[in-house]
Amino acid sequence: MTELARRLEGVTDFPVTDRLFHAMGFDPDSGRIAPDGRLATTPNCTYRLDVLAFIGWQREREHKQFVEIQQMLNKCGVMVLMV
User: Fold this and answer.
1) Total domains present in the chain
2) Structural domain harbouring 15
3) Average per-residue pLDDT in the chain?
4) Is the pLDDT of residue 59 over 80?
């Protein structure tokens, strides 16, 4: 996360580190992620990989827009937010 912030600041020449860390729930001093932060993951990582694979397939093979894919997943009880 710190590397991402450093690169973003280098490219944009705009101080984004504090805002990015706050928005994502990341503590740079301890390197910890807040349990309710956007970087937090579920214990079952396979679930997330399945969703990512589904999204990738729908985008690349079925040429669906994100909103269409999001609606499909929401109907199945999987909530996906674009961050």
Assistant:
1) 2
2) 2-33
3) 80
4) yes
